[in-house]
Write a structure and sequence with these properties.
Radius of gyration: 20 Å
Strand order of the largest sheet: 5-7-6-1-2-3-4-8
Oligomer: single chain
Structural class: alpha+beta
Shape: globular
Strand content: 15-25%
Number of strands: 10
Distance between the termini: 31 Å
DNA sequence: ATATCTGCCTGCTCGC
DNA sequence: TGCGAGCAGGCAGATA
């Protein structure tokens, strides 16, 4: 699933490919992909505009357009953004952006969970008001800030990490990886973490995200980059979906439990319920 | 208000 | 071998 690293990697690629290009036309083949307005309205407001910048907030990809509006793309479970050659036949394309150089930026999504919308730049702070800090921003994502958001909630720490209001951009893969790296049991009540554990968790979150970005993201299922290439970060995954396989640190078989309705993978030896 | 549950979707895996 | 059931899971919206 596309999480922060998968979105960030694609954002960096798109920066080089799209900035300065003009979007001449938008074709939507699955109307519900467009959120907040009719597909025809989005198409009309985007057509003819030049791309002025690419950004990311949490798992949201931002395509800034001249005229003060920004396309917001969320790939959810199975969405990909690719610059396909003209003959590419993909039955899952839900929207296509025709560029002024003849290429097309395709949004492909079998599950149809993804969403594309358009917002005025002035409204972006309000659109993302509920999102927590960017985990790779050292100014806002401090140990103190993380501690403050975890205080007062007894939810399992795994559930808290999946809450985009606590920290933006983590999904099931990198939440499991961060907890494994920080040696924290996923069921630990969020408000029971010690200051040193919170500091370790913060470091672990940043580390697993940076490793993910460096390897083009984790391709477990369908994630592809802009050039339709799979990411190679699966080789660096230590816990997620490794049920029964040996822990890279101690050799104990990785276990799978369900936390907050989601498959959760951890080492029962390295990640104990009692605080370290 | 906060925390948990349901629906959205379809490709894939598993068991009979 | 074929087929149906169940799983995967981010997020909006509903419910407790």
């Amino acid at each position: 699933m596309p999480e922060l690293p998968e979105v960030e990697y694609v954002a960096r690629q798109l920066h080089g490919e799209l900035v300065g290009r003009r979007i001449e036309r938008v074709e939507v083949s699955w109307p519900r992909i467009v959120a907040g307005m009719a597909p025809e309205e989005l198409a009309a407001r985007v057509a003819g505009r030049m791309v002025t910048g690419i950004g990311r907030r949490g798992k949201y990809l931002l395509i800034a357009l001249e005229g003060g509006e920004t396309l917001i793309v969320h790939r959810r479970m199975s969405g990909n953004l690719t610059l396909a050659p003209p003959d590419a036949a993909d039955p899952y394309v839900r929207a296509a952006f025709a560029l002024d150089d003849g290429r097309r930026l395709l949004y492909s999504d079998p599950r149809k969970f993804g969403r594309i919308t358009l917002a005025a730049d002035a409204d972006l702070p309000r659109v993302f008001a509920a999102l927590g800090p960017e985990p790779l921003d050292d100014e806002t994502f401090t140990a103190a800030a993380l501690a403050a958001r975890l205080a007062g909630t007894k939810r399992p720490i795994k559930a808290a990490l999946l809450d985009q209001g606590i920290v933006a951009g983590l999904g099931n893969i990198y939440a499991d990886e961060a907890l494994f790296r920080a040696r924290i049991h996923p069921l630990r009540p969020a408000d029971s973490l010690t200051p040193s554990e919170i500091a370790a968790l913060r470091e672990a979150i940043q580390a697993v995200l940076l490793v993910g970005i460096a390897h083009g993201g984790t391709t477990f299922g369908r994630h592809r980059d802009v050039y339709n290439e799979a990411g190679t970060n699966l080789e660096h995954i230590e816990a997620y979906r490794r049920t029964g396989q040996p822990c890279p640190r101690c050799g104990t078989p990785i276990e799978r439990i369900v936390v907050a309705q989601r498959g959760t993978h951890y080492c029962p030896h390295c990640q104990r319920m009692d605080a370290n």
